[in-house]
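Colleagues,

For the teaching module next term, I've prepared a clean inverse folding example: a structure given as tokens, and then the sequence designed for it. I'd like students to try predicting residues themselves before seeing the answer, so please don't circulate the second half yet.
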């Protein structure tokens, strides 16, 4: 029975990957078509429909990653039931983090309004980079050449268009992994020089992108959401390690990660600004914003440490008695929130693959469109 179940999970995962990647040219065709049609229309109209397209596609992704993997999601904290513009900060461990952020946003009806801070290199990711940029994603360099001009320009454009925002920032700048001891040592050294407490389960947050986002969006957003994501890891990095490795995308979609725990906290934007203003450091290079952000990540550090140092052999959800996440409850997303998007995308993609003309169009988009989108991204993003 377990062998049959594993085979079924494998086939479902293969089908999910096939749909997700084959539907990208379909998404690009619809997006470019709307970009052309909307030229004479108000900019606000463009983003209303474009947000709908983005939410349509991302709801399909959530369908496969949440409903088809068998993952159990436990959330501590109250996600608002109403839509509101917000800045979201989260710890970063693997590529699945982006999808887990979708899990949270879709429960608030905000998945279509998600926008992100990306590494600059992702603008050249085939077709996806183009979609990220058109949707209002911000591409920043993480090589010491950070320049906030591009971020301010993009954010101000979104403000001018009165765009709804669920703006996600990963302040660590890169993914934490227990296997990257060198990265952790570098992060701890940075903290020590800044007069901050070194952390062991997260990287010391870098403040520039978050500070620019906060200052620019201060009068456009209502709150800052602080999300801590903890995976039931799939394996240990080395013998004796208590911290488990976060799942890869393939491990997650094949059901290797049984549970994800999320701690959600909401801070009104005025409270965040006032707290930052009141914080002072003896180090002139350490701003109040850095102190506030480091305090939030110190809490994440303790949450992760408590979770992984507790009894890892428990097979029952939320039975880790020492973990602060024991107050979390199982969150089940209604199938009606994702199934319509998944079915419509599957049908539309199948139709385009079936007919010779549209199939050829998808192939040309995949080959030549990648180059054109990369050029467009280089010039405009």
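(Answer key — instructors only)
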């Amino acid at each position: 029975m377990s062998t049959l179940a594993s085979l079924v999970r494998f086939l479902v995962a293969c089908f999910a990957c096939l749909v997700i990647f084959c539907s990208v040219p379909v998404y690009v065709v619809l997006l470019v078509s709307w970009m052309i049609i909307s030229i004479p229309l108000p900019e606000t109209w463009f983003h209303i429909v474009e947000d709908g397209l983005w939410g349509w596609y991302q709801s399909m992704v959530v369908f496969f990653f949440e409903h088809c993997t068998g993952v159990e999601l436990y959330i501590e904290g109250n996600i608002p039931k109403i839509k509101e513009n917000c800045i979201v900060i989260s710890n970063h461990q693997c590529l699945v983090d982006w999808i887990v952020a979708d899990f949270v946003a879709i429960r608030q009806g905000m998945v279509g309004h998600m926008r992100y801070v990306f590494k600059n290199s992702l603008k050249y990711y085939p077709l996806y980079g183009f979609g990220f940029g058109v949707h209002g994603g911000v591409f920043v360099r993480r090589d010491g050449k950070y320049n906030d001009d591009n971020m301010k320009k993009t954010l101000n454009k979104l403000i001018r268009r009165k765009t709804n925002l669920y703006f996600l920032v990963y302040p660590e700048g890169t993914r934490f992994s227990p296997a990257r001891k060198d990265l952790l040592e570098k992060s701890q050294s940075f903290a020590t020089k800044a007069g901050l407490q070194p952390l062991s389960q997260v990287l010391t947050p870098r403040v520039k992108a978050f500070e620019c986002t906060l200052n620019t969006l201060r009068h456009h957003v209502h709150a800052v959401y602080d999300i801590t994501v903890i995976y039931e890891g799939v394996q240990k990095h080395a013998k004796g390690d208590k911290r488990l490795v976060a799942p890869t995308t393939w491990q997650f979609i094949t059901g290797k990660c049984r549970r994800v725990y999320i701690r959600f906290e909401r801070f009104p934007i005025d409270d965040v600004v006032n707290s930052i203003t009141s914080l002072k450091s003896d180090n002139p290079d350490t701003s109040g914003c850095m102190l506030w952000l480091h305090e939030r990540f110190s809490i994440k550090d303790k949450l992760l440490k408590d979770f992984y140092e507790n009894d890892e052999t428990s097979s029952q959800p939320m039975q880790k008695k020492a973990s602060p996440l024991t107050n979390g409850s199982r969150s089940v997303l209604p199938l009606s929130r994702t199934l319509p998007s998944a079915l419509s995308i599957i049908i539309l993609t199948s139709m385009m693959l079936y007919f010779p003309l549209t199939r050829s169009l998808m192939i040309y988009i995949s080959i030549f469109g990648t180059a054109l989108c990369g050029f467009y991204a280089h010039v405009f993003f």
